[in-house]
Amino acid sequence: MELPEILFNPLVRGILGICLMSAIFLGAMAAVWFERKLSADIQQRYGPMRTGPHGLLQLVADAIKLFTKEDIIPKNADRLLFVAAPIMMMGSVFLMLVAIPFGAIIINGDTYPIAATDMDISILYIEAVSAVSIIGIFMVAYSANNKYSLLGAFRNFARMIGYEVPLGLTIVSVAIMAGSLNIVEIAQAQSPLWFIFKQPIGFIVFFIALMADMGRLPFDQNESEEELIAGWITEYTGMRFGLGFFAEYIHLILGSMLVVLLFLGGWNLPAVLTSNNILGIVLPTVFFLLKVVLVMLFIIMLRWSVPRFRIDQVVDISWKKLLPLALLNLGWVIALGLLG
After folding, report:
1. Of 13, 191, 261, 324, which is most buried, counting CB atoms within 10 Å of its CB?
2. How far, in Å, CA of 12 to CA of 324, rounded?
3. How far is Cα 240 from Cα 238, in angstroms, rounded to an integer?
4. Residues 73-90: tens digit of each pLDDT
């Protein structure tokens, strides 16, 4: 059996999917540790600074705390929705995970993406299933019988509706420039010039809209502890809170991968570096993951460097600034296509 046949074997794809799922969980744990360590260094928090070497045991302490906390379901809550909401949130993550490549193998000049599946419309699929998480958030807020949780969910709706439009327009611009809705082909179309250089405005709009989509500071109005007392997740305790928290970090990793795949060239390297089969197996994936880590570090650093926007400022930025810029970028891409 030749290599392409082996890679497309359903059993191999299944094993690859399990491996990718394990890798994404380990990556999320590393992201949690790094963010807690960085915030502890900045704010002089003792736990993540001193629990074990470099604060590594703080993750173990957090896990013990979450597993041993009392599981409370509020009085008059809708128990079915309250219990099922974490499944919906984690389901959104797993559905995205199916279509995102984690790198590629280049053998004899042929590229084989490391992904559980290869869809012709993968970028549209990822955009669609990422929005499923908002259903889980609304299930939490609605079922908790708490008006502040519900208020947090509605603020989340306002933010998501506002930022999905410019985010979608920039993805369409990228798809037009690449001539494909397949995320693998979009990454390959950036050899040798990355799309960040061809449409810099599109990159800025996409990155800001993605930050809002992930709910990262300065766009975390759905939680905003000072105003809503943890927002939509107020009534969750123990591992229910832990799953919601963990889904946020997995979204952070997958979002960073999208930035690299759509604008930063994916795994593309000069052919001279991948002409050797051994280097072709290792280097593209290492190069891709290195860029993903750098994007993640920048997003985490940003959280501790900027203040939170008010909800009215968030809405203004989306509809009055990002949307016109996204339309301008779309016009630029169409003009380039007509001239080219």
Report:
1. 261
2. 45
3. 6
4. 888 888 888 888 888 888
